[in-house]
Design the sequence.
C-alpha cells in the first residue's frame, strides 16, 4: 500500500436503501495529513459514503481499512453484511471522530460535559485528564469561555465549534466532517471554517463533505466529486477546478456560479 500505510482505504463500496442504489462502487485512499473534500449535489451519496466509513450505515459490499486494519464483515440473511466483531467497530470508531451537520450536542450537558463525556466513557480517561484535555480543545476552537454554557444558549457556530472540540477530545486519527457548515446562518460559517483550516494546518487527516468551494479549493490536498453514487472527478484542487475532465462537474460548478 505505498510507502506508509494510508489512514483510510475504501474499496468498491456499494450501498442501497431499498430499491435505491446510493453508492455504486466508491473507492478512496486518504494518507496521513491529507484533507479530502467530497463535493456533489444533494442526493449524490456523499453523506452516506462518510457514514459507511465508520459504520453508521452498513454497506452492501466493499472494504474499509483504517490505518491498515480491515473492518471485518460477515454475510447475513439476504445480500446484507454486518460487522463481524462489534468490539473492533467500537475501537475503530474511536479513531474516527465525526462532526455532524446538526451538531448533535447533548442538550442536558454543558459544553465541557459534552466534550469530556466520550473520553470518560469510551476511552476510560481519568476525569482530571479528561478535563485538562477538554480545556485544551475548547481553547483551540475558541470556546473555553463558554465551557459552562448549555447548547441552547449558544449560536449555531458556537455549537459546531463545541462539537469539533468534542471530536478532538477523542484524539482521533481521522476526522470526518459531514457538511459541518450547512445548518449555519451565513454569517456564522466563517468561524467554523477558520477552525477547520487551523486543523488542516496542524496536519490533521480530514474527510470533509462540503459545499464550501473556497475551502475545497484552498485547503484540500484532494477533491472528490460524486454524482449519483459514482466518483465523477478526483484529483488535486488546481487540476479539478481549473481543468475538470467531467462534464457533470463543470455543470455543477456553473450551477453554483449562477
Sequence:
Amino acid at each position: 500500500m505505498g510507502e506508509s500505510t494510508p489512514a483510510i482505504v475504501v474499496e468498491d463500496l456499494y450501498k442501497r436503501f431499498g430499491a435505491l442504489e446510493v453508492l455504486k462502487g466508491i473507492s478512496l485512499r486518504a494518507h496521513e495529513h491529507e484533507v479530502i473534500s467530497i463535493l456533489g449535489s444533494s442526493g449524490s451519496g456523499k453523506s452516506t459514503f462518510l457514514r459507511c466509513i465508520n459504520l453508521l450505515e452498513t454497506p452492501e459490499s466493499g472494504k474499509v481499512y483504517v490505518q491498515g486494519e480491515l473492518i471485518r464483515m460477515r454475510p447475513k440473511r439476504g445480500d446484507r453484511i454486518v460487522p463481524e466483531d462489534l468490539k473492533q467497530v467500537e475501537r475503530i470508531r474511536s479513531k474516527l471522530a465525526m462532526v455532524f451537520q446538526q451538531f448533535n450536542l447533548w442538550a442536558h450537558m454543558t459544553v465541557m460535559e459534552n466534550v469530556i463525556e466520550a473520553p470518560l466513557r469510551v476511552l476510560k480517561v481519568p476525569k482530571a485528564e479528561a478535563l485538562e484535555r477538554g480545556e485544551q480543545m475548547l481553547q483551540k476552537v475558541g470556546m473555553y469561555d463558554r465551557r459552562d454554557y448549555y447548547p441552547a444558549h449558544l449560536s449555531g457556530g458556537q455549537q459546531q465549534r463545541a462539537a469539533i472540540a468534542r471530536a478532538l477530545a477523542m484524539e482521533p486519527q481521522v476526522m470526518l466532517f459531514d457538511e459541518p457548515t450547512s445548518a449555519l446562518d451565513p454569517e456564522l460559517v466563517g468561524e467554523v471554517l477558520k477552525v477547520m483550516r487551523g486543523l488542516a494546518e496542524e496536519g490533521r487527516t480530514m474527510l470533509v463533505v462540503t459545499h464550501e468551494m473556497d475551502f475545497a479549493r484552498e485547503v484540500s490536498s484532494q477533491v472528490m466529486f460524486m454524482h449519483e453514487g459514482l466518483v465523477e472527478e478526483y484529483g488535486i484542487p488546481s487540476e479539478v477546478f481549473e481543468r475538470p475532465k467531467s462534464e457533470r462537474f463543470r455543470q455543477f460548478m456553473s450551477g453554483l456560479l449562477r
